[in-house]
Amino acid sequence: MNKTVLITGATGFLGSHITKALFNIGFNIVIFKRSFSNTWRIKDLIDKVKCYDIDRVDLEIPFRENKIDCVIHTATKYGRQGEKMSEIAESNIIFPLKLLEIATFLNTDTFLNTDTFLNTDTFLNTDTILYRYLNNYSLSKRQFIEWLKMFQDRIKIFSLKLEHMYGEADDFSKFVPSVIRDLLLKTKEIKLTKGEQKRDFIYVKDVVNAYISIISQVDKFPRGFYEYETGSSVTTSIKDIVLMMKSLTLNKESYLHFGALPYRENEIMESKANLEKIKKDIGWEPKILLEEGLKQTIEWYRRRLNNE
């Protein structure tokens, strides 16, 4: 029998990619969404998966109506839109904690959590205050990890600390898509920081394969809490990735104004995933080089902009 996976955040960037990939390899898919969610990312699948509107049904109902083998939790609130702290806590702590309680009570085998590189010792063991909106986000993520650990004797828990993910169908509010859009539209001047910050960019399809690798091997793991940094383990400066994107878009007209914008207060100057543990336990490592991933991403956005 094929496993049944419940996915939160299935209408979002990462969640939609995971939903499509698992559906295509034969998993039974159940998704949580809101009655007013924009489902454009999964419009071709929406009638082929079971959907529950979390603002209209009790969270237990999907678990009682389906034998849920695994929960993949990707839904999150960043705080970029000025959400209240209580709203961020509700989305990033209370909601997944309720899911975890129900999953444990109704004998779900596995809970996969989506965490952030901001919740790592590199950044937590310093006095650095993160960008204003990320303070609340990273705090909520960190606190939920502590709650997860309290369930490790009752369910298998895997938490992936994702680095800077990019790819098709992301929001234009994110850095990579916003620069791609400006380049494809041949914006006259693109204002940037000096671009000395180094980031670990990971293509979304590689991230999806990390989730699939875990699900496909989950039977070999006993109950417990497993945490993995997930990225490319290669750092690229913001300046270098912008120059690469300009080259790949064949844009010779836009002026890249490096230094036009100041660094954000307490700017993180470098982040990089340590893949030793995930390679050892799961055998996963990224396959798609940055240039190839950007090519695919740019072509997707080119098609989208041409169709608008």
What is the secondary structure topology, with strand pairs?
Blueprint lengths: L3 E5 L4 H12 L3 E6 L16 E4 L6 H6 L4 E4 L11 H21 L4 E7 L4 H4 L7 H18 L6 E7 L1 E3 L8 H10 L4 E4 L5 E2 L1 E3 H14 L6 E7 L5 E2 H11 L6 E4 L17 H7 L7 H18 L1
Parallel strand pairs: 1-2, 1-4, 2-3, 4-5, 5-6, 6-11, 7-10, 8-13
Antiparallel strand pairs: 9-12
What structural keywords apply?
Rossmann fold, 10 helices, single chain, 308 residues, 13 strands
Low-confidence stretches: 122-133
Q: In percent, how helical is the residue content?
A: 25-40%
CATH architecture designation of the domain at 4-165 and 202-233 and 273-286: 3-Layer(aba) Sandwich
Radius of gyration over all CA atoms, rounded: 20 Å
| Class derived from helix and strand content | alpha/beta
pLDDT averaged over residues: 93
Strand content range: 15-25%
CATH superfamily of the domain at 4-165 and 202-233 and 273-286, please? NAD(P)-binding Rossmann-like Domain
The end-to-end distance, rounded to whole angstroms, is 42 Å
Main β-sheet: number of strands, strand sense, barrel status? 7 strands, parallel
The helix/strand series, from N terminus to C terminus, equals: EHEEHEHEHHEEHEEEHEEHEHH
Number of strands: 13
So what's the CATH class of the domain at 4-165 and 202-233 and 273-286? Alpha Beta
Name the strands of the widest sheet in spatial order.
Answer: 3-2-1-4-5-6-11
Number of distinct helices: 10
Descriptive account of the structure:
The chain is α/β, with parallel strands linked by helices and 308 residues long. The chain is 39% helix and 19% strand. The protein contains ten helices and 13 strands. α1 packs across α7. It starts with a strand and ends with a helix. α3 (85-105) links the parallel β4 (70-73) and β5 (110-116). It has a domain at 4-165 and 202-233 and 273-286: Rossmann fold (3-Layer(aba) Sandwich). A seven-stranded parallel beta sheet has the order 3-2-1-4-5-6-11, with helices on both faces. A two-stranded parallel sheet has the order 7-10. It has a two-stranded parallel ribbon with strand order 8-13. Mean pLDDT is 93; it is low at 122-133. It has helices at residues 13-24, 60-65, 85-105, 121-124, 132-149, 175-184, 204-217, 238-248, 276-282, 290-307, and strands at residues 4-8, 28-33, 50-53, 70-73, 110-116, 156-162, 164-166, 189-192, 198-199, 201-203, 224-230, 236-237, 255-258.
